Amino acid sequence: MVRQSERRESTIAAILKAARKLFAARGFGETSIDDIAAGAGVAKGAVYHHFASKEEIFTQVLENVQAELASTPPSPAILKMTDPLDQIAALVLRYLVDANEPGIRQILLIDGPVVIGWQKWREIDDRYFGAGAKTVMELILGKSAAPPRVEAATQLFMGAVMEACLVCAKSQEPKKRARDLSAALRMMLEGLRSA
Questions:
Q1: What does the alpha-carbon distance between residue 84 and residue 91 come to, in Å, rounded to a whole number?
Q2: Contact 99, 141 (CB under 8 A)
Q3: How many CB atoms lie within 10 A of CB 78?
Q4: Whole-angstrom Cα distance, residue 155 to residue 184?
Q5: Rounded Cα–Cα distance for residues 23 and 4 (Å)
Q6: Sign of the C-alpha dihedral, residues 28, 29, 34, 35?
Q7: 164 class by beta-carbon count within 10 Å (0-12 exposed, 13-18 middle, 19+ buried)
Q8: Is CATH 1.10.10.60 what the domain over 4-51 is classified as, yes or no?
Q9: 2-50: pLDDT as tens digits
């Protein structure tokens, strides 16, 4: 016998799966609650039973996308790199390429900042990538770096990666732009290491 909690989880998963597919293909503005309900195979009322609004659904979808990007392990080639700056640049390149895949770009980079607002978008990004960025800065700046300096460098690094994502999202050749931007970021980080 299926328990109520299992039905609830199954319904929510179906709603989020349908919403993600629709948001990726059509964008937030062209997707309705009716579309999401039909895609999930549930009544519109079931969607509203679990989510207060289309924006709430979108926020959860965006959060799931960020969680997937953050949980992707480094490739063996990246792990074999001996220079931490090369590893960081390669990880940033991978993130820029992955974030600009068509199904992800629309949700994360085109609709995300507009639908949920810049501040909330940054909070989600910080939640998944902030700790890693701080670790990167501690590694580059060294153990003796003062916490305010590490924090400032972390914020600048996060801002550079976010801006790179947005630049790639608008590019006709996002993979080429990602390579160029990650290489430039590598040079900037080299300057921090020698400072």
A1: 10
A2: no
A3: 16
A4: 17
A5: 28
A6: negative
A7: buried
A8: yes
A9: 688 888 899 999 999 999 999 999 999 999 999 999 999 999 999 999 9
